[in-house]
Amino acid sequence: MTRRSRLLRSAALGLGAIVALSACTASESTDPTKPTSAATTVSSPDAPLTVIADPSEIAASVATSRALFTTAPVVVVAPVGAPEAQEVAARAAVALGVPLLVGDAKSGNAAESSTEPTQPAESDAGDGDDGDTDPAEASETEKPLADELARLKTSTALLVGDAADPSGTDPSHGDKRDSERGGNGLTIVRATASAHAVGAAIGHRLGTPAEGNPATFSAGIAALEAPKSASTSTPTAGTAKIPAVKRPKPIDDTAAIALPGVEQLAPIATARAAGIPVHLLTEGSANPQAEASVIDALHTTGGEKTLALGAAFGSEPALDWKVRTARTGAQLPGGGQLLFADHQFVAIYGTPSTPVLGVLGEQDVAGSVARAQEVAAQYQGLTAKTVVPMFEIIATVAAGGPGPDGNFSNELSAESLRPWIDAAAQAGMYVVIDLQPGRTDFLTQAQQYQSLLELPNVGLALDPEWRLAPDELHLRTIGSVSAAEVNSVTHWLADLTNEKGLPQKMLVVHQFRPSMLTDRQNLDLSRPEIALLLHVDGQGGQADKQATWANLQRDAPVGVAWGWKNFYHEDKPMLTPEQTISGVQPTPELITYQ
């Protein structure tokens, strides 16, 4: 054989190898049994909280990749709006430890029926449409993918199902030798959207979802355990059409929360590929405080950084506080970190060692805990909510004289109340500290109990009946408070709750006359750290109590919770627990006994 013949034969063999191996680039070996290894690298998110809230599947997939991956010689690409293809692509991405990107679907073309490189499409004579995307008409969504592939230094893209070339280049416009390559030398590997085909392409055995319902796919991907190394031996390893990928060291300082749904499949898969645990919120809310299981999971996950995946996180108020609080693991009595959605509070009212002010003072600490539990137990089975026993402790008591400080209010020390609060916490009870401020203001008195309000099971109550103007006296005048003064307490307590990473705080405002809370429509309900409750304290005959209840409900601010008080001696007659639940509508979130 002449030297020229040998050269021609070598060139022909080289061309054949390029066509047969979609995993090879110009600089790689053409031996189909030895794909070239490549290293993937990841980086921890920069901020304590990173939110991926893009409503577009394409944009969200790119944003997640950008947040977690530094380089990825191989990526997996699935078509937008195709949950079945995205699900199997997600399994491949997690198995390899590489990002999953979502891109456009091929225009008018089904996915290739094999895992071989893309072949030139045959165009119909005269119409100029070859079935793939023309670069001149490329979708605007292709550029973000192309930019991300360039940033990641990607050389090989596994396209699952009907995914279009993410570089935006139609390979049929090149010559036959380069037809398997996309733009910028990107090597394209295609696989049908099946676990068998994709598993064969990557050299891994892939499972299938437990259910065929796309609504369950995100939970399945979040639960995947990624292999420790891409070199793990699998029965199909010899069929791999992509380079072997060296998995990155997992990111160990970050946990992710995600909303369920197919929109988050790619971000969830990319997070799992980076080694980040993903905890799904399943209660239809973007607030991690609503679910005890999510709070526990975030608390036990190492690190201090959090990745939030889902469009609704972008509009969730005070998400930073909600995530920080969930990470503390502190939960309210009854579970979770939100007060009223799932809890029915039942309280006994009074002040320690003073029976005349309420039943709480009729016995010692242990006796009061037992009594509160007995009262609350009567509501078990009457509501679907978790019944939570509670103390409402009068911490500042209205006085007939000015006292040393001249404010007509006697303040119990925070230290003297601490044993009651600790006993309540140990018994799984909530506590509200009640203020009767006399001639001082509510905020001044509230700040005296900051050490107690920094505890997760302690809230605050304001009693305007005992809030006096400078020339007024108790029992001669029924006091009142402005919305502005209540708001000052709301803001201070919300800031404290946020700063300390505490669960939501209950703020009770007592009222049995409209005049007790002027300009009520100006109450600030914008702080999610605070759950504001209007407590209707009417006593006497049930007809009068119901009339007071209905009157105060009228024109009330939207979003407040409601409390009802049963008086042992003053009510004629006092309602039974069954009557309280069925006869007081709407059902009050807090029922207090005095």
Summarize the structure.
By secondary structure, the chain is α/β, with parallel strands linked by helices. The chain has 2 domains: 22-27 and 34-117 and 140-328, no CATH class; 343-593, TIM Barrel, CATH 3.20.20. Helices cover 29% and strands 18% of the residues.
How would you describe the overall organization of this protein?
It is elongated and about 90 Å long. It folds into two domains: 22-27 and 34-117 and 140-328, no CATH class; 343-593, TIM Barrel, CATH 3.20.20. The protein is of the alpha/beta class and 594 residues long. Helix 2 runs parallel beside helix 7 and helix 8 crosses helix 9 (319-328). Residues 1-35, 108-141, 170-179 and 230-237 have low confidence and may be disordered. It is built from 16 helices and 23 strands. Strands 13-14-16-17-19-21-22-23 form an eight-stranded parallel β-barrel, surrounded by four helices. A four-stranded parallel sheet has the order 3-12-10-11, with helices on both faces. A four-stranded parallel sheet has the order 6-5-7-8, with helices on both faces. 29% of the residues lie in helices and 18% in strands.
Fill in the keyword field for this structure.
TIM Barrel; 4-stranded parallel beta sheet; alpha/beta; 23 strands; single chain; disordered N terminus; 8-stranded parallel barrel; 16 helices; 594 residues; elongated
